[in-house]
């Protein structure tokens, strides 16, 4: 067994969890030799030898003893610089920075190849649920048709409080923040960006294609109203914030992040509170469901530990699917059925519905249910933003596939 | 990409599924070059070039073109001979034979090491759910505390029919057989042996220790009565056939297969019909749940395909946990709380209850609920067998662990 000497970047909630988990895992043969933080003298909840801390990035990156970088800092740009520098120096990296990864994966994959060095990041998507590793190693064939799930714990916690416990949105959000599920700036979670970045990373390992986050339709839950909840309840469904990547034909796949009406027969219907749940659908095996704690200090740290231990055996992602001969390409040229609730803004002046199935007008609020091209939603993103509108996907068949 | 040339042993339900799946997976670069069956001239449901078939084992094992053996035959002894011979010749093997593996794993692990050759068998446990691979590669650390689940689809299908659909046991069994979930001799499934063999394999990869199937308490569902169903319903629980391996302290783990009263708050409560569900519990990440189709032609074949593709990258199990310095050892010296329903046989004359919590006597049937040592249940196995007795585990805390 080789000894793993870790240089850790970041000592927030996740970094402290990693410190605890690595100390506990005796068979990991791993040790944290240096921790880089902004302020080494900051008071911390857990007791750590002060000499471990540094604020100098180079004290880790130029330390010949360090044979693994673990990077769990919030600042995506700083994370990118650290990870890139380490990889260029040939030092393997375990990272949890989804924003950074979703923005820079193509370059970081190329650097891994050029420098024959590993970058692992299972913790970046769904914390302790091994989604990336399974997509890379186990569902590594042509049979995969869809990955769909609840990837963000904070927004799911809020929806569970609002929906199942009949709290109002602001109370639920405050409670999520008090419990540490939501960041002090919650827009990252509730506007769907956290789910989006995870979906971008998942898609690289699911179908072998990188799609820029900017090209993917993303709509969050911040504008949800009582009338939306009521509508969903009347239909016997729950509203969940769902991220999905779906093969719509042999040649094409689509992907988006959107609130969705989820019926009780679906696996993700029962994914409540801060939990994550992912459905992997394939030819032959139908649907598989993975469920667990997607975030939090120790669950995320446990996932990081799995990546650290994978380095004991020189594991790296092979990105096999990127080299597949017959890969589907990304399309937004698909028809969705959506529900749109609106007040002052008449959405019918914004959105080009191809077919309208329901229309409801009242003094309090209005809604329309209709079919629309995903490309139209993307084109109208700016016009939809920051308006008193709520939008949700109503799952239909894409071609002859049940979603 | 190297081309994988497969010699396939067995062309029953699973073998035919493998043939279909391998033909479909264009990116696998795999091809079946020979199929060994007992009777090459037997009529088959799917059309296959007759020249592929042989009844001569050596025509595959001595074929220099074959670089992977896939073995999915029912006869455990024949499977053992084929797998052992192949490994001794240095040919890697993918196997789905749980009985064979559960009986011979220690020897086969040793042969793999001596001959530097791979034996993969994810399909042997829970079909398309990647339990073995995840235990080996992802939950490969000290944090794992428990693996517990419904590992047998046939018995679960029967229990679902009996329990949720109020059918009687014989009708449900007949239906399971008609649908192909249960073998013509169903005792393997319903007496718990299928679950047992899977549990033995899982435990090797969960905790790094092989325990002989003969040393593990196994009790099935064939003696279930209406009064047991009624009792469970009154308590608001379902009866499931559950296999589990649990760390009960830092030094010890226990394992058994037994019907269990499962309350609605548990993940496995919702695992119905022919589905499998596995809960992996660990320090830090709490419980993770994996759910899917555990058996059947194509789901099992999809799992075999994952193992075939793993050979593209020379993947093999490292059996890391077998080398752990601090491994818990197997104990049956733990106290269980069980329900025992009996008619003529007075179980109080057989079993040494340490404490009796409930006792019920009626003209129709009697039951007792009490605490008993697992070692006593093992000692009394013969006396319990083939009697009008039904026994179920009532989950309690082992030490301070919630089960």
Key descriptive features of the protein:
homodimer, 403 residues, alpha/beta, 6-stranded parallel beta sheet, 13 helices
Write the layout of secondary structure elements.
The structure is a homodimer of 403-residue chains.
Chain A (H helix, E strand, L loop, with lengths): L3 E6 L3 H12 L5 E7 L16 E2 L2 H5 L6 E4 L4 H13 L4 E3 L2 H18 L3 E2 L10 H7 L6 E7 L2 H12 L4 H10 L8 H4 L2 H15 L9 E2 L7 H9 L3 E10 L4 E11 L12 E8 L3 E8 L3 H14 L18 E2 L4 E8 L12 E6 L5 E8 H6 L1 H4 L4 E5 L10
Parallel strand pairs in A: 1-2, 1-4, 2-3, 4-5, 5-6, 8-10, 10-13
Antiparallel strand pairs in A: 7-9, 7-11, 9-10, 11-12, 14-16, 14-17, 15-16
Could you characterize the architecture of this molecule?
Two copies of one chain form a homodimer. Chain A has 403 residues and is of the alpha/beta class. In chain A, 32% of the residues lie in helices and 25% in strands. Chain A contains 13 helices and 17 strands. In chain A, strands 7, 8, 9, 10, 11, 12 and 13 form a seven-stranded mixed sheet that branches. The longest helix of chain A is centred in the first third of the chain and has 18 residues, at 98-115. The radius of gyration of chain A is 22 Å and the shape is globular. The model of chain A is unreliable at 399-403 (pLDDT under 50). Chains A and B meet through α1, α5, β12 and α11 of A and α1, α5, β12 and α11 of B.
């Amino acid at each position: 067994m080789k000894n793993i000497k870790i240089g850790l970047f970041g000592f927030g909630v996740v970094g402290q969890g990693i410190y605890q988990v690595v100390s506990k895992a005796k068979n990991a043969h791993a040790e944290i030799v240096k921790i880089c933080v902004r302020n080494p003298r900051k008071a911390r909840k857990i007791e750590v030898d002060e000499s471990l801390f540094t604020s100098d990035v180079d004290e880790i990156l130029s330390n010949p003893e360090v044979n693994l970088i673990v990077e769990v800092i919030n600042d995506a740009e700083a994370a990118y610089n650290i990870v890139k520098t380490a990889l260029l120096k040939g030092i393997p990296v375990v990272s949890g920075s989804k924003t950074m990864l979703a923005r820079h994966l193509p370059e970081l994959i190329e650097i891994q190849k050029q420098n024959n060095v590993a970058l692992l990041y299972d913790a970046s998507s769904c914390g302790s649920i091994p989604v990336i590793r399974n997509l890379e190693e186990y569902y590594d064939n042509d049979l995969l048709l869809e990955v769909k799930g609840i990837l963000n714990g904070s927004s799911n916690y809020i929806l569970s409080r609002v929906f199942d416990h009949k709290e109002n949105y602001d109370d639920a959000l405050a409670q999520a923040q008090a419990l540490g599920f939501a960041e002090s700036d919650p827009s990252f979670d509730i506007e769907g960006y956290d789910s989006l970045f995870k979906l971008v990373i998942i898609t690289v390992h699911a179908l072998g294609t990188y799609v820029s986050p900017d090209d993917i339709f993303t709509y969050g839950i911040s504008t949800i109203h009582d009338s939306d909840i009521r509508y969903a309840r009347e239909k016997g469904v729950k509203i969940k914030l769902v991220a999905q990547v779906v093969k719509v034909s042999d040649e094409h796949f689509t992907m988006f992040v959107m609130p969705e009406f989820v019926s009780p027969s679906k696996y993700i219907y029962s994914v409540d509170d801060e939990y994550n749940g992912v459905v992997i659908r394939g030819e032959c095996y139908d649907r598989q469901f993975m469920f667990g704690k997607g975030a939090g200090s120790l669950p995320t740290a446990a996932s990081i530990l799995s990546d650290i231990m994978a380095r004991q055996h020189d594991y790296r992602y092979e990105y096999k699917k990127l080299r597949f001969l017959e890969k589907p390409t990304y399309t937004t040229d698909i028809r969705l059925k959506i529900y749109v609730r609106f007040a002052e803004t008449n959405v019918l002046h914004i959105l080009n519905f191809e077919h309208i199935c329901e229309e409801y007008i009242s003094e309090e609020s209005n809604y329309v249910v209709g079919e629309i091209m995903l490309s139209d939603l993307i084109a109208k993103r700016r016009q939809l933003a920051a308006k008193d509108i709520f939008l949700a996907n109503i799952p239909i068949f894409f071609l002859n596939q049940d979603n």
